[in-house]
Amino acid sequence: MANLTMITGFLLMSFSNTWELQVLHIMLFLLIYLVALMGNMLIFILISVDVHLHTPMYFFLKNLSFLDLCFITVTVPKSIANSLSHSYSISYLGCATQVFLGILFAASEVFILTAMFYDRYVAICQPLHYEMIMKYESCMKMAVASWLTGGIIGLMYAVSTFSLPFCGSKEICQFFCDVNSLFRIACSKTYVAVDVTIAIGSVLVILCCIFIAVSYSQIFSAVIKIPTTEGQSKAFSTCLPHLIILTVFVTTGAMAYLKPPLDSDTIVDLLLSVLYTMVPPTLNPVIYSLRNKDMKPSMKKLIA
């Protein structure tokens, strides 16, 4: 029983024992992090200062950019710092915080993306009622609900995971504190509380995906009926980026978290974790800023 109370920290995985590969890891992660940081900050600032972008769609995009910025900050800087210091330790509290914040931002992002799909559905399928339905108060309530629900799910994951007893090896086969990796070093093989939490989170994500699928089927039906090619192109250009981002984020996250934790391949888990923690936050600003006609003039004004 003494072993169960002596765990004060964990050891995260090193990408390589070779110094040259460690330098490559540091440079690659730093580059990706800086791109994600600058891109999401740019979108956040542009939407904040330009009154022409104070619309429901950009309100949710602003929330998404902030979530992406927070999400990638939870894991990547710590991994870079560990490689620089050659110390891969993380405290018990730090590990629990990573789990809580990681799930909070990831879950909140799914809900914000769902709200963005709803915004596009109303704009395309119910344009005459758009201003009445998508009022500022309604958008604020959806955003608050997304953050609160994400926070509750994150808290449930953190509490249920760290209620498990840990003993033996303290090595986590990931570059951050991942729930599945923590399962492998837990003494208990009964995850009732964790299974309930995963079931609740999975059901909510599935419901979001079903809502998005139904909404998109109606959006596509409405877009096809638009008489002009230009109108169809404009409608699709505001919807497809959401679909691309959601597909990448949910697919990689589901593959990482829905795999049986005891049968997982460490290398595959590592690659999937890099994909869902780093690709969407880096990709989002590129998709939304470079292809967005409203963002380009605002960007030119800010630079000028």
TrEMBL record:
Q: Which InterPro entries match?
A: GPCR_Rhodpsn, GPCR_Rhodpsn_7TM, Olfact_rcpt, Olfactory_GPCR
Q: What is its main location?
A: membrane
Localization recorded for this chain is: Cell membrane
- One GO cellular component term noted in the UniProt record for this chain: plasma membrane
Q: Its membrane topology, per UniProt?
A: Multi-pass membrane protein
Top-rank taxon:
Eukaryota
Q: What is this protein called?
A: Olfactory receptor 14A2-like
Native source species: Phascolarctos cinereus
The protein's gene is named: LOC110200285
